[in-house]
Amino acid sequence: MSDKILVTYASKCGSTSEVAEAIGKVLCDKGAAADVRPAKDVADASDYQAVVVGSAIRAGQLLPPATKFVETHQGALSRVPVAYFVVCLTMKDDTEENRRTVAAYLDPVREMVQPVEVGLFAGAMNYSELPLPMRLLMKAMKSPEGDFRDWDSIRAWADGLRPILLGA
Ligand SMILES: Cc1cc2nc3c(=O)[nH]c(=O)nc-3n(C[C@H](O)[C@H](O)[C@H](O)COP(=O)(O)O)c2cc1C
């Protein structure tokens, strides 16, 4: 097994992939080696010392590639420390109630592999990146538009993650 950490993610419009990149960068700056890959592109997760899995949320659910990744690699993941993170608009308002709601989105993957740590982050919404019908739906739902990612809190989470994942 290598001494690398895998940071893998599912993203539709790119905000979650940028969060994954930022997490990978912090882990590398702290002396760990990390690969950052889309979940659908990871064929083998068994060569990593620890794994971080992240997903955007759509309609109250993790994106299918994130759930499928955990399902497919359940055996390898059950042998190493695993952390999950979620990127969504509910976390724009960081309340206890919203944290409970968003934490529950992880239940399907928690049932397969228990995480050692969980990160819940606000995401971004840019109507112009959405197909027209979805754009109209989001506008009708008055979904907030903007970039609500809090990079300091994302980096702080990643900073605390390294010793938890690598036990150092
Ligand atoms: C069609 C659609 C459905 C969404 N559903 C939810 C939702 O149920 N709960 C939530 O908190 N955020 C929801 N969001 C917000 C996304 O999770 C947020 O914009 C996230 O940053 C998108 O990540 P991505 O850019 O990696 O795709 C939704 C966004 C879209 C476009």
Would you give an account of this structure?
With 168 residues, this protein is of the alpha/beta class. It has a single domain, classed as 3-Layer(aba) Sandwich (Rossmann fold). It contains 7 helices and 8 strands; from the N terminus they run βαβββααβααββαβα. Strands 1, 2, 3, 4, 5 and 6 form a 6-stranded mixed β-sheet that branches. Strands 7-8 form a two-stranded antiparallel sheet. The protein binds flavin mononucleotide. Flavin mononucleotide binds next to helix 1, strand 3, strand 5, strand 7 and helix 6.
Notable features of this structure?
about 170 residues; about 25% strand; alpha/beta; globular; six-stranded mixed beta sheet; Rossmann fold; binds flavin mononucleotide; 7 helices
Summarize this, please?
The protein is an alpha/beta fold and 168 residues long. The protein has helices at residues 15-29, 64-72, 74-77, 96-104, 107-110, 132-140, 151-166; strands at residues 4-10, 33-38, 50-58, 61-62, 82-88, 117-122, 124-125, 146-147.
Q: What is the general shape?
A: globular
| CATH C-level class | Alpha Beta
Largest sheet: 6 strands, mixed
CATH architecture annotation name: 3-Layer(aba) Sandwich
| Percent helix | 25-40%
Bound molecules: flavin mononucleotide
- CATH topology: the name is Rossmann fold
Mean of residue pLDDT values:
95
* CATH H-level homologous superfamily name: Flavodoxin domain
Number of strands: 8
What is the H/E order? EHEEEHHEHHEEHEH
Runs in which pLDDT lies below 50 for 5 or more consecutive residues are none
- Counting H and I runs of at least 4 residues, what is the number of helices? 7
Between the first and last Cα atoms, what is the distance in angstroms? 17 Å
